[in-house]
Amino acid sequence: MEYVQAGGARIPALGFGTWELRGALACRMVEIALEVGYRHIDTAQMYDNEGEVGAAIRASGVPREEIFLVTKVWPGRFRAGELQRSVEESVARLGFEPVDLVLLHWPNPAVPLAETIEALNEVRSRGLTRHIGVSNFPVRLLREAVRLSPAPIVTDQVEYHPFLSQRRLLRACREAGIALTAYCPLARGRVFESAVLKRIGARYGKDPGQVALRWLLQQESVVAIPRSARPEHIRSNFQIWDFRLSDEEMEEIARLGSPQGRIVDLEGLAPEWDEE
Q1: Annotated catalytic residue: which of 47, 160, 183, 204?
Q2: Dist CA 211 CA 208 (whole Å)
Q3: Is the CATH number of domain 9-261 3.40.50.300?
Q4: DSSP 61-107
Q5: For this structure, is 3 an active site residue?
Q6: pLDDT tens for residues 109-129?
Q7: Model confidence pTM above 0.85
Q8: Which of 120, 118, 147 shows the shortest CA–CA distance to 134?
Q9: Where are the domains of the chain?
């Protein structure tokens, strides 16, 4: 496993995402991921699976201190007092205190960011979480969150894959010592259709998904959290530690991306995204 250091956090560079996994399926897939070797598990209040994720961690037999556990606060609970209560509930459902990282899931312009960041810092100071961060924050909001927060913002979790350029946000993260955590790192399967990724993968005996994940993790300060409901894909996504892409291959893959490659753009939640 490789790690990314950010704001005092040591984050396993490859994590397992749990969006859309619920009930017994969520339990089983998290158990398989931990068995394979993942040590970073990502959930959220709105995924409706925090209880199952916690149960799977306990059933796995992997010591809690080896696992980097992340959850997220839904923007409808960003008000002072409500945010703290929501994290208390998340911690209770997961069955672990503290969690390793609590994120703001999406920006909420209806609540002053200063109020939300203050509440998030209180959650950390109370020992409910070791670290704090944000998700789906463009550069402008990320910089504002950093300015407002006494504690380090350790990551911004955003959509990132070979077809979506995030150059401006990456620069801002690196300047601030923040990790960029890539969700949808396989572009919901689109990477498997790429002739470029197929050709590069053939040189190493790897599939396009493994190449896409390797491309992400070879970038400074980038973490990736692929999700799968199929055990064979969970295992395949973890088999990326035995090869490295050349500088030329990294650049060729980067040229696939554009600001128009975004997949997740939820109406009513999405901020004004960064444009290159």
Answers
A1: 47
A2: 5
A3: no
A4: ---GGG-EEEEEE-GGG-STTHHHHHHHHHHHHHT-SSEEEEEE-S-
A5: no
A6: 999 999 999 999 999 999 999
A7: yes
A8: 120
A9: 9-261
